[in-house]
Design brief:
This is NPCBM/NEW2 domain protein. The protein is mainly beta. The chain contains 4 helices and 34 strands.
């Protein structure tokens, strides 16, 4: 298999900076030192000559001081997604037998690419030319409406076409696929003619192993890990999908992100939405509202208008919710988290002047926090104990009808274990 990196030029805009490792805890505290070991229970960290065992539930991020790989402008690459959500950026790929051979993108000079083997059973999709933004959008749209068969995808001027069936295996040199059509007939298809990519409809793994963290490397790959071993200067990873990846040196690893297991951002969750229509009394008082519904109940990580960046007090925020007045969102927490945090206010002064809003937080039907926001109020930090809570409800209301949309911003809204 060809897992060597491309070597013609340095294709990733990364620089390795040798420095101490940093570990960020869920509460925000940082430790600086050296990562010694990682297991399911936590991490061992040498800080100031003393080894400290930190429980996994208290870890937010481990930064090994190496830059995450980012493709440079005009870099061509394909993207392999595994069944667990791991993503590999590759320069070449081929299906040989029941395995996918890949050639990873190059990393910094002197950093060796990891060794890995990819059985087809671990692969969800291969998107060709993933560097093309329009193609990526078309690809994602296709995935949302796909059926329950494998797809052999062809790219055309009008978009993506595909043939449904079953991809059994590739030939010895990786140039052809044995493909069974829906009617049962088998034929050999050229891999090169799958100009859009391939999709594998893998059987559902009823109870997959628990995720430990997400590893991000200097080659631009991200691995959803269930096990990590640190020894002899190298790092070994086993993904949730069962793929083993061996990095000869820790210089190839950028971060171990534990947020996926310990922190959940509300903008990444799917809530039950309550959004009232316009009441008859409101319609009489404001005729322009008659026959209309309220604006969208909420927006994830974005805002309204031609410049959709989510802001709080005029400053951009990467994660958060914009919740419309007269709406409520209920999030299933399953009793797994201990604290809900957010910074709450208006997008900017203009939006604040147009609204007087009340925020209500409920835990399993019981009100646990309320606050009111109006006029030129500045954003305020909110921290609520949600230990054992199964249903978290967030409601935004106003006391008078209005023809103007009004949103309350919950920046960095998250629940922590």
């Amino acid at each position: 298999m060809f897992t060597r990196p491309l070597v013609a030029v340095a294709l990733l805009a990364v620089v390795v900076a040798a420095r101490a490792d940093d570990i960020t805890l869920v509460g925000g505290k940082k430790l600086t030192g050296k990562l010694v070991a990682v297991d399911a229970e936590g991490v061992t960290f040498n800080a100031g000559g003393t080894e400290v065992k930190v429980p996994a539930k208290d870890v937010l991020l481990i930064d090994l001081g190496n830059k995450i790989g980012v493709p440079v402008k005009d870099q061509k690459y394909h993207e392999v997604e595994l069944t667990d959500g791991s993503v590999l950026r590759v320069g070449k790929f081929a299906v040989k037998g029941k395995s996918l051979d890949v050639e990873l993108l190059a990393g910094p000079a002197g950093v060796t690419a990891p060794a890995l083997e990819l059985p087809l059973s671990s692969v969800f999709s291969v998107c060709r030319n993933a560097d093309d933004a329009k193609h990526r959008d078309n690809w994602q749209a296709m995935l949302r409406t796909r059926g329950k068969r494998d797809l052999y995808v062809m790219r055309t001027a009008e978009g993506l076409n595909f043939v449904q069936g079953t991809i059994h295996e590739g030939n010895a040199d990786g140039t052809e696929l044995t493909f069974e059509k829906e009617g049962g007939a088998k034929e050999q298809l050229r891999l090169s003619r799958a100009t859009g990519g391939l999709v594998f409809n893998q059987p559902s793994d009823g109870r997959p192993p628990a995720t430990l963290c997400k590893l991000k490397d200097v080659f631009g790959n991200s691995l959803v890990a269930r096990e990590i071993g640190v020894s002899g200067g190298g790092v070994k990873v086993k993904t949730v999908s069962g793929v083993s990846v061996a990095y000869p040196a820790a210089a190839a690893v950028a971060q171990l992100d534990y947020a996926q297991g310990n922190v959940a951002y509300l903008s990444d969750l799917t809530p039950q939405v309550e959004a009232a229509g316009v009441a008859d009394a409101d319609a009489k008082a404001f005729p322009l509202l008659e026959g209309k519904t309220r604006p969208g109940a909420f927006l994830r990580d974005r805002f309204l208008g031609d410049s959709p960046t989510l802001t709080l007090d005029g400053a951009p925020v990467p994660k958060g919710l914009a919740v419309s007045a007269d709406s409520a969102l209920t999030f299933p927490l399953g009793g797994e988290y201990r604290e809900f945090r957010a910074t709450v206010g208006f997008a900017d002064a203009r939006h604040g002047n147009a609204a007087e809003l009340k925020l209500t937080i409920e835990a399993d039907g019981k009100v646990i926090a309320t606050d009111a926001f109006k006029g030129k109020d500045k954003a305020r930090a909110l921290s609520v104990d949600v230990k054992g809570v199964r249903q978290l409800r967030i409601a935004v209301d106003r006391d008078y009808p209005s023809e103007t949309a009004a949103y309350l911003i919950l920046a960095d809204a998250k629940v922590q274990k």
